[in-house]
What does this fold into?
Amino acid sequence: MAKTKLYIARHGKTMFNTIGRAQGWSDTPLTKFGEEGIRELGVGLKAAKIPFRAAFSSDSGRTMQTMEIILRETHNQDLPYRHDKRIREWCFGSLDGGYDGELFQGVLPRTVALATGKPDDQVTYPELAAGIMEVDTANWAEPWEVIKERIYSGFEAIAQRLEASGGGNAIVVSHGMTIGTFIWLLDEKRGKTPLDNGSITVVSYDNGRFTIEKVADMTYRHKGREILDKKK
It folds into this structure.
């Protein structure tokens, strides 16, 4: 059986990413710049000659748009492709669509859960989830126990499905905080690594256990940009 490995991409840059709004379960399309970035990723993955056996994304429009470009550029349009809502982004509830600065530097630091004075990069995901729930007037935000269960089980189900079919590589498109949370559950230090749009995080899966191989790797995008620049 081939080694089971997930290549997890963060979706391309969107309208809300560009203007600094928290996207969550709301959705905006990739910008022209975002599409070009994912084209670079696809070209870089093709150049690396990674044989993908399956494709998975969340059910959000931005991840599906990203996957469409990746599959086209890697010539994998016929690859089996499934959506899984468990690997959606976090839900910010009534704060969805708000400006990042107002949310993360204004509202949330004043909550009981986050009034610790910690720098942003030291705030844990459970603390962040508690803060969001505290100020979500719509009561749509998920508690930490629900967030971690849905995200881990989503990636685990993908790995198990791939393993059951003989292993190999899957291309997966998800979201910044979702990927960060998954990696944090495996290794808290590496789970706080910033993830650029179009970055690749690689995990392998064997005997019910995940192993982190790479986090936030931008080399595929950089290689793709080199190739495209040479063609101009």
In short: The mean pLDDT is 94. The chain has two domains: 4-91+142-231, 95-140. Residues 144-164 form the longest helix (21 residues).
